[in-house]
Amino acid sequence: MSSITELMPFIVLIPLIAGPVCALLPGRELPWLLTTLSMATAFILSALTLAAVFDGGSLSYAFGNWAPPVGIEYRVDAANAFVALLITGVAAVLLPWGRLIVDAEVPERQGSFYALLLIALAGLLGITLTGDVFNVFVFLEISSLATYGLIAHGKDRRALLAAFRYLIMGTVGATFLLIGIAFLYILTGTLNMVDLAERLPASEASRAMPVALGFIVVGFAIKLALFPLHHWLPNAYTYAPSLISALLAATATKVALYVMLRFIFDVFGPAYSFAALPLSTAFMVMALGGMFAGSWLAMMQTNLKRMLAYSSVAQVGYMVLGVSLVTLAGLPAAFLHLFNHGLMKAALFASAGLVAWRCGSVRLQDMRGIGREMPWTLTAFALAGVSLIGIPPTAGFISKWYLIAAAMEAGQIWLVVLILVTSLMALVYIARVVEIAWMQPRPDDAPAVEEAHWTLLVPVWLLVAANFWFGIDTRLTVGGASMAAEALAGGRLLP
Questions:
Q1: Regions of the chain with pLDDT less than 50
Q2: What is the 3 state secondary structure string of 231-277?
Q3: Which one, of 312, 339, 305, 303, lies nearest residue 89 by Cα?
Q4: CB 173 within 8 A of CB 219
Q5: d(Cα 261, Cα 239) in Å, to the nearest integer?
Q6: What is the structure's pLDDT at 122?
Q7: DSSP 8-state class, residue 70
Q8: Residue 143's CB: how many other CB atoms inside 10 A?
Q9: Which of 113, 129, 178, 343 would you call most buried, defined as having the most Cβ atoms within 10 angstroms of its Cβ?
């Protein structure tokens, strides 16, 4: 246990240190190799940390031997260890897939590209593992600034505009968060999360408390792309390089949701959070709006990546819907979908990236008949789409099953109907892609397209296999989600 505690900071430090080194390396192979090895190492450490947390509760590491709350603390429990495993695992799988894709989409300055990628991932991991609220802001800015640069690397000139819009919205979100943190510090004189949770009850009568909570929730809602604060997401996912689209879709919004829940349930406490502000109602309305608006807009798209981007808005709605129930069943369902959706979207965007690489386009009209020329790629897309819809035996089915069970336990039967309706809407846009790719004839003047090399297909199919494996063996996902919810809320939720 002590050895794992000592190694835990290296989950963040390895990619953070490797990033600047990548910027100095020449060529293409060396930066990619260092990035891949760094994230593979971080994944192994994340897995060991999660195993240790499962066995022994939470882990704490004080930097510089300065004991918290004076010093900065990394505090890891089942909730953030679960999220860290998702970030590092998806990155470790996608980086081998992305080598040739990046060569095609980012032919120059790959050292700086991989440097930004490592810094962005280090920022996400730092946000996840830190036990200091100001550190949350610092790592959020580190990750965001690197992500803006990564999006701007897209081949389409509109990538620059997408990065600028994300910068504006991200700056607004970060400003809201910083204001909320400032209020907390004024009220308590501390920035440590555990210490904040102990001191804040004495300030519940202060008008500054609900203001702080409101600023923090809105700030993270923007980062989460929670409807109607999602407008930065479609363009960012559409015009970013394919590797970045896949990584962002699988990780960034999940981290934002986790940290928001950490503040609501662990720092402020659910009893205060949902009483001081109408969060339950607001979350439910915004979640349902995202589920329907995101699904409807996805059905209307003619660009594959943009369709998947709007689908992500809908899937964020499912996660927040579980939170809005404020029950012992709803919160684990939210965490479960957080993890499973990361696997789904990584597989879907990776498949879309192979189509873009081979066809030079992800417009649906350019994909007519491509399923017969790229059968392994489009089959992987279809199977990942099955998980997104929620058809058994997939991880997506398990997520929606637990969400439906939570709604029924809360007596909200009408939510079950809405979940099923939006799932049918997902069936429509996934089936549309399958119909175009497999059923429509390839135009005579269309250039010949070859299937992707097996080295690119293996990572995609690993992600597809994970979607089916975790739909059959749910010990890690359901057990991890349950422990994550318990770590955040304990016995402070409704039965």
A1: 495
A2: CHHHHHHHHCCHHHHHHHHHHHHHHHHHHHHHHHHHHHCHHHHHHHC
A3: 339
A4: yes
A5: 30
A6: 93
A7: T
A8: 24
A9: 343
What count of other Cβ atoms lies within 10 Å of the Cβ of residue 335?
Answer: 33
Cβ neighbours for 235, distance < 8 A, ≥ 6 positions apart: 158, 161, 162, 165, 166
State in Å, rounded, how far the first CA of the chain is from the last one: 33
Q: What share of the chain is helix, strand, coil (3-state, %, to 5)?
A: 80, 5, 20
* Six token digits for residue 494: 């409704």
* Residue whose C-alpha is closest to residue 259's, from 127, 100, 457, 84: 127
Residues whose CB falls within 8 Å of the CB of residue 304, separated by 6 or more in sequence, listed in order: 352, 355, 362, 363, 364, 367, 433
Say how far apart CA 349 and CA 361 lie, in whole Å.
14
On whether the CB atoms of residues 15 and 142 are closer than 8 A, the answer is no
Reference 357, options 443, 424, 455, 216; nearest CA is: 455
Q: In the structure encoding, which two tokens stand for residue 222, read together?
A: 């923007």
User: What's the CA gap between 400 and 390, in Å, rounded?
Assistant: 7
CA distance 77 to 266: 12
Return the half-sphere exposure (C-beta side, CA atoms, 13 A cut-off) of residue 435: 6
Find residue 363's DSSP bridge partners.
303
Residue type, 303: N
pLDDT at position 401, please?
A: 93
Q: Which structure tokens are listed for 445?
A: 């003047």
CA distance 343 to 386: 12
Q: Which two tokens stand for residue 390?
A: 């929620």
Quick one: how far is CA 103 from the chain centroid?
25
And the tokens for 251? 């990780």
